[in-house]
Each structure stands twice: as structure tokens, then as C-alpha cells.
Amino acid sequence: MTKILVVSDIHYPDRRDSLPIEIEESVSQVDLIMALGDFTVIKVLNYLNTFGKRVIAIQGNMDEKLIKNILPKTRIIEINNIHLGLYHGNGGPKGIEQRVKNIFGKKHLNAYIFGHSHIAVNKYIGDEFYFNPGTLSGAHKSFGILYIDFGNIWGKIINIK
Fold it and tell me: pTM of whole model > 0.90?
């Protein structure tokens, strides 16, 4: 089984003055880290890389130019026969799942992993899985853990006090 720490919308240092300790506590239990943009500054991406885990990252709309120059807007990856589309997101929360799916066109993907709305999502629509870990900044802070095993994918949202 592959276990993935998923973070999005960190917004450091513009909306928070430190990174949550829960991330450090969780990272030793995962195989890799997915970061879905809105780090704000490159320092956050560099911090995620210090854990010695593979980091799969995309840019967000609020990231500094340096981040936008080195990270793609979208990625498609395969883990244990599951095809995942990663995209930060756009627009308001209503209809975000369909907008995220539309970014990838007619490509058949098993899962869509996104952020942007600051609202956690962990659900299937038909046979497609949609996962948003929420935000590390704001009133309802959260991150996610994805599990991929034997061609199946599921997730867990971790709320931060």
C-alpha cells in the first residue's frame, strides 16, 4: 500500500506564521508528499523537501513567480495502477469537481486531486475519486492522507485544532 500526505493552500507567511506540527508528525508515516499549490513562497516547498520523501508538487494561483517558473499547473501521475490528475483548482467551490475534471480533457483518470477552495472533499462521483485536503490556513485547517492499494484509492481528512 502507498500512503501519501496531501497538503494544499498553505499560504505561508501571508496567512500563517508557522507550519503545523501535525505535518511533521505525519510525514514519517507516509511514502510521499503531494503539494497542491498556494505555498506562497519557495521556502515552503524547500521545507517539504527536507523530510527526505519524494515531493510531487504543482503551482497554485497565489504562488510567487519563482514557484510558477519551476512547477507545472497540472500533473498526471500513476501510482499502483491508479491514474491521478493533480490541479490546484479555480473559481468558487460550487462545481469545482467538474472544473478540475475538465482541465484534463478526455483523459480517463481514476482520481482528481485538487485544492483552491479551502474546503475538504473526499468522495467518489461515479467511479471517479475526488480529493481536496482543505487548507493549512484559515478557520477550518486540514490536510489529507491518500491510500492506494491493489488498484483502489481512498482518503482521510485530518482536521487540525
Answer: yes
C-alpha–C-alpha distance, residues 121 and 115, integer Å: 9
Q: Which three cell numbers stand for residue 147?
A: 491510500
CB under 8 Å to 43, separation ≥6 — which residues? 12
Q: What is the pLDDT of residues 33-72, one digit of tens each?
A: 999 999 889 999 999 999 999 999 999 999 999 999 999 9
> For every residue of 95-125, which 3-state class applies, written as one string?
CHHHHHHHHCCCCCCCEEEECCCCCCEEEEE
9-41 pLDDT, tens per residue?
A: 998 776 666 777 788 889 999 999 999 999 889
Nearest residue to 86 via CA among 98, 69, 103, 70: 103
Domains of the chain: total: 1
**What is the DSSP secondary-structure string of 26-45?**
HHTT-SEEEE-S--BSHHHH
CATH of the domain at 121: 3.60.21.10
Q: From CA 159, how far away is CA 143, in angstroms rounded?
A: 7
Domain that holds residue 85: 2-159
